[in-house]
Amino acid sequence: MKIGVPKETAEGERRVALVPDVVRSLKKKNEGVDVLIESGAGDAAGHPDAHYTDAGAEIAAADALWGADVVLRVGTPDEDEVGRLHAGQVLIAHLSPWTAAESNKALAASGVTSFAMEAIPRTTRAQAMDALSSQAAAAGYAAMLIAARESGRFFGMMTTAAGTVPPAKVLVLGAGVAGLQAVATAKRLGAIVTGFDIRRAAWEQIASLGGRPLELDFIPDAEGEGGYARPLTEEENAQVRDALTDNAAKQDIIVTTAAIPGRPAPLLITAEAVRGMEPGAVIVDLAAESGGNCELTQAGETVVEGGVKVIGPRNLASEMPVPASQLYAKNLENLLGLMVTEEGELKIDFEDDILAAAAITAGGEIKNERAAK
Where residue 70 falls among pLDDT bands split at 50, 70, 90? Predict the structure, then answer.
């Protein structure tokens, strides 16, 4: 069986689907597995071709990679790349299955069996395959580093002969994996950190990392399906926005991470709230690509309003390509463990709850009900 890893083609994408250590592990576990890597695929993630050949991979041409039994990607393949696939192949990647209707149809028409990393279920058994979580951790860390750089402030208190500089005040909105990583990073840097989430269970997690939970007791617990927050009613949203407007004025930095897969990001920080912040404050909006948690966010741009920077980064996990690729490659290795035998043969059991949830297309059809809609 051949596994192909093409070079990522999306603008700014620096990650790679497999790293040399995982190539080595796959070949050790599965006899008869050959790993084909496109030349330069790992360069931006710190892995030159020589690292892959040392691990037992073969540097191959694009035609061979896209013709492999299993094709592994980080980003969603474009129309031309989908056109290079054929019936009987397996594709595993981020596929944006809840929004990319034409891509879902094209994959089904090609006869490809495709698995979306976004559709891995949030279960204990699937944790080691959960790429949304692993990449969110990298994004949360990167977001706080961007905030620290752009704010120009000391995060920790600094005492000098010239006087004492107080610590930065940081607010993190959303306490999923990205938000908790942002809380932890800000705390390590010495900031005074407040965290907010509409799920009550998250308040304890914020406190465990040294943050102060912003407890809005007037909002009912909003734990939803799969551990995500449920959508709030318009009345609840208005109450949250009013409370956050008051709190935002006290902050030097706000990092927003609230997102629900396949849906527009909830609006948490209004333009009025931004205008109430002190000049020099910074907002980093991790939800920029799905509409943004801040009313002024523009994806891929930095907007300045009254001296406040509103930063809307795209593909933030790619800012940390080395650890993000390492984590993603392990997610893929663990998922492949469910479908590749020790002899290196592909054997997909759609009765397996993880494979059933992650499968988007198979046998010429869109298997996933949500993707079909």
Answer: very high
Give the catalytic positions in this structure: 122, 127, 130, 133, 228
Q: Please give the structure tokens belonging to residue 362.
A: 């198979």
pLDDT above 90 for 236: no
β-partners of residue 194 are: 171, 212
- Give how far Cα 340 sits from Cα of 92, 131, 226, 317, Å: 13, 19, 27, 28
**Residue 62 three-state SS:** helix
Place of tokens 């094209």: 106
Q: Is the pLDDT of residue 317 over 90?
A: yes
Runs of H (alpha helix) within the chain: 20-29, 49-54, 62-66, 79-83, 101-110, 131-151, 177-188, 200-208, 234-248, 271-275, 321-336, 353-358, 369-372
Q: Are 65 and 38 in contact (CB under 8 A)?
A: yes
The neighbour count for residue 9, using CB atoms within 10 Å, is 12
What pTM, to 2 d.p., does this model score? 0.92
- Please give the structure tokens belonging to residue 33: 């597995």
Judge contact between 138 and 323, C-beta under 8 A. Answer: yes
Q: Are 15 and 325 contacting, i.e. CB atoms less than 8 angstroms apart? A: yes
Task: Give the separation between CA 110 and CA 363, rounded to whole angstroms.
Answer: 9
Cα-only R_g, the chain: 22
Interhelix angle 131-151/177-188, nearest 10 degrees: 40
In this predicted structure, the answer to whether residue 290 has a pLDDT above a threshold of 70 is yes
Torsion of CA 324, 325, 328, 329, to 10 degrees: -150
